[in-house]
Amino acid sequence: MLLPTFLKRVRLVHVGLFTFLVFAFYLPFSGAGLHLLDGARNYARDWVNNASLFTLLHFVAGSRTGAELIAGLVLLAPIGYLAKTQAAPLWSSLVLTGGVPLVSPTAYPWYFTWSIPFLCFYPSAAWLLMSVTSVLAYSPAITLGAGEPLRNSLLILSLEYGPVYVWLEYYCWAARRTKLPVVPQEL
After folding, report:
1. DSSP 9
2. 41-72 pLDDT, tens per residue?
3. Do 95 and 80 meet the contact criterion of CB atoms below 8 Å apart?
């Protein structure tokens, strides 16, 4: 996802080195062939847990495949925008690592901690709040332990995501009102 952001900032030799390293680290596992990706395929096909916007996309699209297609398009928009505006790599990293779990069908609490290192450079109370409220995602596991079926509660999802979306919307509204730049400048 961050490749377009970095492509304009690196030399071709670095892209070649990166490609070489990916293949070099794959070589010890090449005996597995395409089975090396079985876990990722099963995860993408079967797992749905703690989804926020993906649930809405599923409702709108009427199918999981349609929701996945829309989610992919939703992710392509900021990737393209950040690459086009040549946004700072740290800002792009915050936006994309914070945004992916929001449109993903599975969003475990630790996924939201991926954005925390970037908050050192671009503080955002909403993203920090998301890393805290995401702990509520463990409530279905607690009910499972009590003998209840494993399912997400609309109340818990609302408490987990609602304040964050309201805060992000307020930030966007305030930024438009004060004409702050959408993409911060390089540090």
Report:
1. T
2. 887 777 888 888 998 999 999 998 899 999 99
3. no
Q: What is the distance between the alpha carbons of residues 115 and 98, in angstroms, rounded to a whole number?
A: 5
- Cβ-in-10-Å burial (0-12, 13-18, 19+) of 16 comes to exposed
Tens of pLDDT, residues 121-138: 988 888 899 989 999 988
**Is 80 exposed, middle or buried, given 0-12, 13-18 or 19+ CB atoms closer than 10 A?**
exposed
Tell me the Ramachandran region of residue 57: left when phi exceeds 0, alpha when psi lies from -120 to 50, beta otherwise. Answer: alpha
The number of angstroms, rounded, from the C-alpha of 160 to the middle of its chain's C-alpha atoms is 16
> What is the rounded radius of gyration, in angstroms, for the C-alpha atoms of the chain?
19
H or E, element range at 171: helix 154-178
Q: What pTM was computed for the model? A: 0.77
CA angle 26, 98, 82 (to 5 degrees): 85
Of 7, 157, 184, 156, nearest in space to 95 by CA: 184
Work out whether the CA dihedral 111, 155, 59, 77 comes out positive or negative.
Answer: negative
- Say how far residue 28 (Cα) sits from the centre of its chain: 29
- Composition of the chain by helix, strand, coil, percent to 5: 75, 0, 25
